[in-house]
Amino acid sequence: MWYNLPVETVKGEEKMQKLLLIKYGELTTKKGNRKTFIQLLVRNIQSILGNLDYQIHYDRVRMYIESDDIETISKKLQKVFGIHSIVECFKLHTNMDEISTSLVEVLKGVSFQTFKVETKRADKSFPIPSMECSRQLGGVVLKNFPCKVDVHHPDLTIQLEIRKEGAFLYVREIAGLGGYPVGIQGKGLLMLSGGIDSPVAGYLSLKRGVDLECLYFESPPHTSLEAKNKVKSLATILNAYSGNIKLLVVPFTALQEAIYKNVPESYVITIMRRMMYRIASSVIQKRRLKVLINGESIGQVASQTLSSMCVINSVTNIPVIRPVACMDKLEIIEIARKIDTYETSILPYEDCCTIFLPKHPVIHPELEKCIEYESRFDYEPLLQECVENIEVVSLKEKKEELL
Ligand code: ATP
Ligand code: MG
């Protein structure tokens, strides 16, 4: 069902004020932290709405946004974690005649055959009980439109909230993303490749309130500028949920070439990933981030068997979060499609993990062998060089500083 809600007048000069009402998500269960949650949510909304023209009002129960461009704002709010639902509503005086007239106006733009009315009377000083309000409004609807009441599966649910500041009438509630406000948990470092899994891992972390910086390993000339731009596009898509994400690009060529020169072929990927973890850990310390996040999924490739994960993970004490570890590829793809990263992820550019793939990568690597192979070359200065020459790429089209 689709319709246009009229914004115009009810009784000649009196305007119905159309605004967005935002219902908070999971934070309502966290009583002690409520204030911090709401303030962060407001900050996040402000950074995602940028320069748009709007006014925001909030208390511990609800948030309202006034704007002349409610459609645009509503779309952007659908990417803000911590919002349970977004409601286009009309603010009216708490007067049943005015509410009834307004309701008829609102419903003129709506097609429906069945409906129900739900009333919440938060302001108990309003003299008419909720059930009676619903009954009266139901009568008004039945009188003016060819329709029936259906309390179980109505085409349309008309909702009225009577509060101290006015009566709020709405018929359309858009589901928000839920989750926690981004940043409430601090920041993690996402290893972002151009693949399908890591952007999904990033999205799921953002959903739990973890803000991100993204780390991308590039090996030019073996990997191309297109590959890097693809990762930048993915980071930009993720940034719509945060507003604060930075992309850090590690120049990985010299270290990767040294690995290929010194390590037996079956172990090159294992050692390469141990080096990636070392670099990521030192970036996390340097930038005061909390955890490492990646798109590893158990058993997906040789470097993601539990044995491989153990020897790779053993180079760091920093907690590693793997949001898609237990998902099937199809489940991951479903989320990638939903968040619009899929089409970008499947563009056919190479990644440093996919160039020079060994024919038979080791499936159950041994830690002693890793240590022995790594002792064959002096990798410390190469690691240091990688960290020191990280480029911070702004998601707004210009290069920024060196780390
Ligand atoms: P994705 O897992 O993102 O779909 P992929 O499957 O090609 O890409 P894998 O080889 O499975 O990548 O690597 C596992 C994880 O390691 C990735 O999800 C990502 O977090 C990280 N990773 C791989 N290559 C890179 C890279 N070039 N830069 C940063 N992180 C990387
Ligand atoms: Mg993968």
Number of strands: 17
Give the strand content.
15-25%
Bound ligands, each once: adenosine-5'-triphosphate, magnesium ion
Average residue pLDDT = 90
Query: What form results from the Cα inertia axes?
Result: elongated
**Second rung of CATH, namely the architecture of the largest domain:** 3-Layer(aba) Sandwich
Low confidence ranges:
1-14, 398-403
In N-to-C order, the SSE pattern is EEEHEEHEHEHEEEEHEHEHHEHEHHHHEE
N-C termini distance: 51 Å
CATH superfamily of the largest domain: HUPs
Tell me about this structure.
With 403 residues, this protein is of the alpha/beta class. It folds into two domains: 176 residues, VC0802-like, CATH 3.30.2130; 216 residues, HUPs (Rossmann fold, 3-Layer(aba) Sandwich). It is 36% helix and 23% strand. It is built from 13 helices and 17 strands. The strands form three sheets. The protein has an eight-stranded mixed β-sheet with strand order 4-5-3-6-10-9-7-8. Strands 15-14-11-12-13-16-17 form a seven-stranded mixed β-sheet, sandwiched between helices. It has a two-stranded antiparallel sheet with strand order 1-2. The N terminus and C terminus are likely disordered. The chain binds adenosine-5'-triphosphate and magnesium ion. The site of adenosine-5'-triphosphate (ATP) has 18 residues, from helix 5 and strand 12. Magnesium ion (MG) binds next to loops.
